[in-house]
Amino acid sequence: WDEDNNIKTDSIAYNGFDYPYPNIGEFSVPLHADFHVYEIEWDKEMIAWKVDGVTFYLESITDSNKSEFHKDFFIIFNLAVGGNLGGTVDVNTFPLDNNNNPTPQNLYVDWVRVYQKEIPADLEFVVISSNTEVESDVVISDSTVGEWSTGTQIIPDATYEGKNCWELTSSTKSADDGNWGTVLAFQDGINGDFSNYSELKVSIATTGKYIAYKVSIVPQSGSNIDVVLPVNDEITSWQDISVNISGLTAIKQIAIFGEGGDIGVSKIYITDFKLVGGNETVSKTALIEAISTANTLLNTTVVGNADGQVSEADATTFANAITAAQAVNNKDDATQDEINAALSALTTATKSFQAAIIVEEEVFIIISSDLNIQSDVDITDSTVGEWSTGTDINPEGDYEDKNCWVLTTGTKPPAEGNWGAVLAFQNGINGDFSDYATLNVTLATSCDFNEYKVT
């Protein structure tokens, strides 16, 4: 608050700061006259301070020196007196009573609430688990497990380097007989809607000699989804693999395999094979910052017709855009696509609002059709010329109801220098023109010239 109007509030993240603090929120109404909702919205990226839902300060906590803000905190309420935060202690802050004693000042707290956003567990469809107590979500039977006619030997209850796993051994039959690789295929029993799954995870160990390692997902309809697994063929210990998948719906088959391999020798060990989805990590940081910036811009721009101001219509349009963005920000289940769309719309609205701010153009007048406007050129007989072309110059002409200068081509022949009709201001042009970007001129012509130029 400030000592005169009680319209300011402060926020501090105690991590190396200087006084005066830059994070002051200033509001249009006295904060002491009524109850207000003071709020801190805190996530893994940002702390936002708000009063009555309006964000007035943001503090990023992603840097390594802000690690303390990822630990547990507690709440205290304090009516500070004196100091940088408490303010000056005098008769303004503590008015004297009839006995010349300072009157007490009170802090009233109506309620305190703490909310924790519930994050549902990730979706997980387990195909194979190294934990024998975790059942597969696949309906496993002799008819649902196959090897796609490669002859692969499959052992579902093997152990390798301390992990329960499925062991696949290359068949002894030749490539001509269909042994193109070592395959474990779940050919049925995969039930559910997989549209919200986006990641495939698997742990693989191999004896090597394979050309490539892949997963093939066969949907109930449409084309197969084939994913190359980034397995190092020369490493025999366990490798944890994670790949992105998308576009899944209903799955008919899912197979994991190695192409090639030494016939009857090469082995692949498979465990912790699962599809993962559910929570899409969303970030509102950029949107929150954009809303804060937009609010500051709107609140510091005056409505009016003068330089640096905007029209009431433009201010209203911008305010509506901010409100729409804030609605998305307040939406707990907003998707990243919704957040990105709101950010894009607000960015466009901010640019439009900035462009609508009135800027008084700096104009240098050479000739005006308004006789009441004087030229900024120091016009004399010595400063106006025609570059030896013989052009006849009439500075007091009139054409189609406009006052103008009329240039008539000279009567001398081209051989004597009459190459065109010229009006040249050869001196008397004073000033710094580094900030000028546009030249405007209104021109009419008898259409007998090859081209028109300004030099």
TrEMBL record:
- Residue ranges of every copy of the GH16 domain listed in the record: 1-120
Q: Per UniProt, what is one GO molecular function of this protein?
A: hydrolase activity, hydrolyzing O-glycosyl compounds
Under the heading Pfam families, the entry gives: Glyco_hydro_16
Q: Which GO terms describe its biological process?
A: carbohydrate metabolic process
**Would you say which domain of life the source belongs to?**
Bacteria
Please give the family membership noted in the entry: Belongs to the glycosyl hydrolase 16 family.
Q: What is this protein called?
A: GH16 domain-containing protein
